[in-house]
């Protein structure tokens, strides 16, 4: 029996080099465009000035405090949303009558933009952490819930009835039949929710003024510290890339047994 072949290392290396070249090209354009007068430096400072502002910000305690506040709001909101969505998805998906009763409600609530809840969040929690958590939880919850419902619906009914005939308890059927099937869907939902949660955390801080990187961006913009504003925006972008990479890495490691992940490493 032959083992699955790994992806071509040369192709992976070439992709990484192309990505690095694209980033270098972007930085070069950002450096030259304002210096050549193609854009006004008041609106887009050279990349070197943005880098200098980033280095200056990284040396201040206020920057790290804001970064910590954003990460706390993101992680707490995501954890609450994932826990609630997984529990609700398993319960709703396992009971056909309940799934039918809630289908229209879910389809009505899910498309509502989280930013539309900003007035409600401010009314309830002011500019405290709670307002950010409300928006993050609402946005991330639907990403995970929908995926869990798909996962529960994908369970093989024959396997489920077989487990029932072997007198598996309800918990046993969930643990040994439903959960392994739904888990890849859960990870997909968590990966999507992680990115959405970061977007909403920054948005809440930016609009509401709750503590975090978003608030610091708004302060920099109001004080016309444009290089600092761009530096903080870069930090949020890097944070998003790191979160996405960690989510994908965790998904591949924890689902290494699943065919969808094993297929990624076969030629």
UniProtKB/TrEMBL annotation:
Family matches, as CDD domains: TM_PBP2
Highest taxon of source: Bacteria
Listed transmembrane segments: 12-30, 71-96, 108-127, 133-153, 182-208, 228-247
Principal location: membrane
Keyword Methyltransferase included in the entry's annotation: no
Keywords (A to Z) from UniProt: Cell membrane, Membrane, Transmembrane, Transmembrane helix, Transport
SUPFAM superfamilies: MetI-like (SSF161098)
Pfam families: BPD_transp_1 (PF00528)
Membrane topology label: Multi-pass membrane protein
Gene3D superfamilies named in the record: MetI-like
Record's subcellular location: Cell membrane
Keyword Transport: yes
Family membership: Belongs to the binding-protein-dependent transport system permease family.
Name of the protein in question: ABC transporter permease
Organism whose genome encodes this protein: Actinoplanes flavus
């Amino acid at each position: 029996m032959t083992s699955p072949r790994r992806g071509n290392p040369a192709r992976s290396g070439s992709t990484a080099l192309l990505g690095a070249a694209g980033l270098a090209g972007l930085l070069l354009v950002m450096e030259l465009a304002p210096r050549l007068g193609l854009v006004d430096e008041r609106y887009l400072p050279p990349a070197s000035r943005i880098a200098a502002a980033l280095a200056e910000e990284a040396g201040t305690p206020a920057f790290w405090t804001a970064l910590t506040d954003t990460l706390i709001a993101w992680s707490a909101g995501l954890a609450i949303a994932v826990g609630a969505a997984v529990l609700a998805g398993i319960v709703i998906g396992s009971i056909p009558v309940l799934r039918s009763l809630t289908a229209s409600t879910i389809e009505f609530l899910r498309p509502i933009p989280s930013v539309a809840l900003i007035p409600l969040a401010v009314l309830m929690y002011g500019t405290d952490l709670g307002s950010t958590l409300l928006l993050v939880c609402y946005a991330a919850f639907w990403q995970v819930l929908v995926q869990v419902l798909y996962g529960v619906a994908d369970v093989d009914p024959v396997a489920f009835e077989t487990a029932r005939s072997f007198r598996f308890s309800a918990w046993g059927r969930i643990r040994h039949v439903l959960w392994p099937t739904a888990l890849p869907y859960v990870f997909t939902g968590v990966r999507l929710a992680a990115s959405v949660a970061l977007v909403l955390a920054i948005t809440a801080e930016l609009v509401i003024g709750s503590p975090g990187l978003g608030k610091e961006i708004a302060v920099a913009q109001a004080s016309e510290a444009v290089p600092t504003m761009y530096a903080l925006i870069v930090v949020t972008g890097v944070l998003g890339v790191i979160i996405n990479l960690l989510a994908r890495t965790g998904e591949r490691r924890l689902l290494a047994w699943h065919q969808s992940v094993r297929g990624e490493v076969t030629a």
